[in-house]
Amino acid sequence: MPVEIRELVIKVTVNQPSQGQQPSAVPAMGAKADDDKEAIISQCVDEILGIIENKKER
């Protein structure tokens, strides 16, 4: 018998790094990050356009 979850509660606590600690994730910087974003966006647009074309053919 399947179980149906009607409500899901997720609690998260985020702590600011202390004065001497470095953040664990380093933000992307510079032109390379912009180029990477453009490449990802371009791939996404191509995929979406391909999906739309496939749906039109059906």
Task: Describe the model.
With 58 residues, the protein is mostly helical. It has one helix at 30-57. It has one helix and no strands. The radius of gyration is 21 Å and the shape is flat.
**Poorly predicted runs:** none
> Care to count the β-strands?
0
Shape: flat
The amount of helix comes to: 40-55%
Distance between the termini: 37 Å
Pairing-aware structural class of the strands and helices? mainly alpha
Main sheet makeup: none
How many DSSP H or I helices? Answer: 1
Question: Overall mean pLDDT score?
Answer: 81
H/E series: H
Radius of gyration: 21 Å
Strand content: under 5%
InterPro entries: DUF5908
Features of this protein?
1 helix, 58 residues, mainly alpha
SSE topology:
Blueprint: H1 30-57
What is the compact description of this entry?
With 58 residues, this protein is mainly alpha-helical. It has one helix at 30-57. It holds the Pfam family DUF5908.
